[in-house]
Amino acid sequence: MMVMLLFGYGVFVWDNTLGERFFDPDSGDSVTFVSYVEIAFNELGIDSYVISQILPDINGLQNYPLLMVLNGYSQDFIMDSTQIATILDYIGQGGSVYMEGVNIAEFLSWYYPALLDTFHAYFGGNTWTSIYQVSGVESTFTEGEVFGYSSDTLVTSGMDVVLAMSDADSVLISLDSSKALVSRGVGFVFGAFKDTVGRGATMISSICFSALNSLDTAFTSQQIRDEFMNRILAFFGMAKILVVDAAPSEINRFYEDIEVLSYRCDTFFYETVGPTFLEMMKYPVVIWRTGVNGKPLTPIDTMQIKLYLDLGGKLFLTGMHSLDSVSISGPGDTKFITDYLGADLIGSFPNANYILGRKEYSLINAVVSLSDAQELSGEDTVFLYYYYSVWPPISDTGCAGIRNTYNRSKILTLGLNYSEIADSIQRRSILSTTLANWFIAPTSSFGATGMKDYKSQQETEDNSGIFLLSNWRIPRGAKLYDSAGRQIKKPVVPGVYLLKSENILKKIVLLK
Questions:
Q1: Whole-model pTM above 0.85?
Q2: Which domains are seen in the chain, by residue range?
C-alpha cells in the first residue's frame, strides 16, 4: 500500500522579474531581485523551496502552502489573466501569498482589482521620490525593524503607495511616505477565506525584499534580511522554534505542547555552553529552558543571547535556576538582567503552589509544585506566585514572570520550570498566547504539519514535490473518511480519502 499526501510543506518562489537587476550599494554591483531571497533561505536552513520563472498551474501550486511572487520594478504588463486566475484559485483554496513589486498595486488596480482585494489593500498613488529608509509598525510583526533601502532610482522612484483597508494592517512604512507592506492580520480570517482549508494569509509590498540593507554597523545587510525573512515565514506559519534544553534528563513538556499547537521545532541539548548567536539567528523564537536542576546561563550564553536579541530575536526563558549566575547584586551580566529581561530583582522564592496570570495571560490560574523557584521583579509583570490553603488566596507572594521589549526583541522570563505546570491546557495557553503575541503563526494547515507526524519507515519524494509514503498508519487521534464522507478505520481501495487531525483536513490519495 502507498499513500500520496497531496499538500506538502515548502515555499514556491515565482521569479516574475525575467532576470531584472538593480544596483546594490553593499556589493557595488547589480543583482537580481531573487538573489538575496535565495541566500536568506539557505542561511536560515530552509531546504523546502523551489525558485522558478514559470508559475505552475493550480495542481502544481497545491504542493506548497506559501507562494512568493517577485515582480521587481517592471512597469509593463506584469501578469496575464491565466496567471491571475491561478493565484486567485490558489488563495481561494487556502494558500498563502506574499507578493512584491514596485508597481504591483497600480497594475492590479487597473487590470485585476479582484486580486488586489484579496490582499485587503488599495493603490494610493505613486511617491515619485527616492526612498532611502523603511521602518516597521508598532503592534505588527515588523515592530522595531528599520532598514535602509536601495539607492537605485529604478527601484525607489515612482513606487506605489500601498494602503491598508480597515481590516488589514500596514506593517512597513517609509519616513518619506505612507507606502507600506500591507498584510492581513495574523489570526484573523476575512470573507471568503473563513471556511477554507488553511490560513490563506496574504501580504503585498511595493518594497522589494532584496533591496533592503542594514543601517546597523553591528550587522551585515544579509543578516538583517535573514532576520526579516524569519519574521515573514513566521507570519505565514513556515518557521521553526529552537528549544534549547539545559536539563535533558528532566521531563520537557515543550515538545508535546509545540506539537499539539501545530508548531515545529528543533532541539539543542547541552551540558556546558549553549548555542551561538549564529545558530540561534536561524529561528524567530528561542525557548531556553533550564528545568529544575539544569545548567544556569553562563556569561558566554548571555553574550550570545544578547547578540541574538539585538538582531530582533524573541526569547522565552524558563527554569528554576536559570539566572543563578547572572544576579543583579552578584557576578554576571547586569545589563542582560536589567535591559534585556527588564528585571530589577532576581531572588529565590521558597515555595509556591499556584501561579496567576495578568494582562493577556489573565485566564491562567495554574497549579504548580515549587520548592525553590526564582522570584523576579520588573515593570511588566505578567505572572504572580501564590501559596494558599483556601481559594481564593488573599494576596500574591512574588513575581513569577515578566515580559520585556528591548529595541527589536521580545522576551518572556519565567522564574519557574514551565514543565512543572501540570494542567496541559493552562500550560499550552501560556505558550500559544506568547507565540501569538509575537506573531508566530502555527504551521500552515494548507500543507502537512511539518511532515513529522506522517513519516514512516520508507519515504520518497517525486519531482512534483508530492510525498509518497509506504507502511503508512493513521496518526493517533486522527480520523479517516472516504470520498462519501463516511468515517473508516483504514483505506482499503485506491482512491481519494480525507484525513482529519487537530481540526485540520488533509487530502490523501491511496495508490496500489
A1: no
A2: 8-235 (3.40.50.880), 241-437 (3.40.50.880), 452-511 (no CATH)
